[in-house]
What does this fold into?
Amino acid sequence: MSRVLATYNVKGGVGKTSAAVNLAYLAARDRSSTLLWDLDPQGASTYLFRVKPKVRGGARKLVRLKTEVDDVIKGTDYEQLDLLPADFSYRHMDLALDSTKRPTSRLSKVIAPLRDEYEWIFLDCPPSISLVSESVFDAADALLVPIIPATLSSRTFEQLSKLVQGGPQVLAFFSMVDRRKKLHREVMEQLRGDSAGVLESTIPTSADVERMGVQRSAIAEFAPRSRAALAYQALWEEVQGRLNG
Amino acid sequence: MSEFLLPDGISLEAAGEALRQRLELARGGVRETDCTFYDTFDGLLHAEDLVLVGEAGRLSLVQPGAGVERAGIAMDAPTRPLLALELDPGPLRDALLPIVEVRALLPIAHVRSRVRALDVLDDQRKTVVRIRLEEPALISSGGRLTGLGPRLTLGLVRGYDKALTEVQDTLVRELGFMLADRRLVEEAVAAAGGVPGGHSSKIDVPLSVSERADAATAAVLRALLRVMQLTIEGMIADTDSEFLHDFRVAVRRSRAVQRELKRVFPPAQLARFREQFRWLQAITGEARDLDVYVLEFDQYRAMLPESLRGELDPLLGVLSRRRRSAHRTMVRALRSERAARLYAEWSDFLQGLEAAPVQDRPDATRPIGALAGERIGKVYRRMLKQGGAIDDSSPPEHYHELRKQGKELRYLLELFGAPLYPAEIVKPMVKSLKSLQDVLGRHQDREVQVATLQSLGEEVSALPGGAGALMAMGVLIQRLGEDERAARAEFAQNFAAFSSELQRRLVKQTFK
It folds into this structure.
């Protein structure tokens, strides 16, 4: 039975895709069969894996279970890592979900047939609060929430924790951290003091993260000894250790 | 199919170059790798077009035809026979268990390969097909290397089936590669002196109805002897419980043939061999019974309320100890001079049977079709009579007696009915007989299990935790008794199907 991890934040540009791609890569490198579902219509993780952002039948057929999910999965360049690609129609995923019965349990239903096959399923979510995110909360065992240590970030985290109460476990981590900035250090200290759901591992701002788009692969693949690669490794180990049950 | 042989006289490097001319390839280095292939003795994985491979610290179940891994775990290649149940819980165990069940996975060939991995890329420089070019060699037990045919294996990347077909076309049409008629694992096993696909304990001797009965009977018995001889090594090594089971089935089937077709044999010699076969069955009986107790132990636990399940541990300890001891006794007997002589003499006897004088063997020269049909009809009618007399109040021995006849009939149908008579008659008859036998078997097993548990009470109670175990055994005995009564209740229905008007008529018309 697989474990489902969703990288989620209401805000965009905080490192969700980067986390999803790098953590899924590390899971697969440990030889665990892993699937990443790129739910974001922009298709950034699909692009990083060099897969065409196309799902036959689009979002509507997929959430209505009219498409065999098995048939639209693509293998990546890494043997244990498969991708359920993004599709431009995902921008209307809300509408597609809304037209079904019990929309919030739909994404769970879509991945249900895959849960025996994959040990890890990552959901890379678009930034928003919507039916899509509610459906993600229902499907996920844990939310991995990247937070930029700036003002308001603690508010975001609080809101989210309240929102998913009784749902998935929330594991937040600081992303795009610049330790030279006093504000970053202060916010991190404060939020760690306030909340147990914040992980020790942090992901630094790094040119290597930005280079992923040029290299089109996980950081550990093209810069295995970089600070960013080691940071994702530490984050992955901590996440595994912190998961409930 | 995705294994190809390199065109004659082409080296790995030259093949790589030729591919590079036609396909967009990522650069891959050459490496040397050792791998071990595994399958059960009877080739259960091979029958599903699967193979278990231990390579580079990973044990994977691979579907060579599709070039994909079904499941795998990080684990060094086992050097001993491996039971699926002993694997860590996870996808590999889940994939293997329903296929191999209690059968051990044995190393069937060790191969060392020089491998060049090449990835075929698309216009986004994404891998869409994996190519493995390799020069394999079999590693014999002494470490000697025997070259096997160099080959190319295509690996499917999920969702890129079309690319795979295109590469296949290029290989065959433009580059002169040929589909390998045997997979690497098959070639390696054959080179190691084994049988690709393993050894089946199924008896499949083609017979013709007009054949002399003694010749046909000898052919069937020789096939059974072969099964016995093939299983001995696995029984002695205690590789898995099926070796002993298959051996005993072969012995029982041989004995059934000896009894049912007795007039094709010279009586004095037959009597001697029957005595010997009875001995074979006796020396293996206790070990098999205890195998079954241990194998079914989880079922016994499941019969108990949850709180009592753990209490049965001392019983399992006693059963396991007895099993080991029974096994040792059996091994001594199997290794004895008497056993060795038996196989040799029985084999010689069967070899010379057709040429032996026929005056004291009245059925020897009769056509096997008629003779086997007569016996099948006879045993069937005997069962009708015995079964018809059974009711709820009948003693257990009556059920047991009927079951013994059922086995006799089943063996006759499988060994002679199947090759000699129409499948549309034989198959449904075997099926209906099997359902009946299942009920009778359960009835008998429960009866015996209750008696065994009662006899073990004293020994178990003397152990630490013995009092709790004894109590749990009491509940278990009760449950087994209930199940025995349930089997009794099901008997009537199964017997009615087996003895239906239609079935009687079919038997009468077909087997005379």
Notes: Strands of chain A lie at 3-7, 34-38, 74-75, 81-84, 120-124, 142-147, 169-177, 198-204.
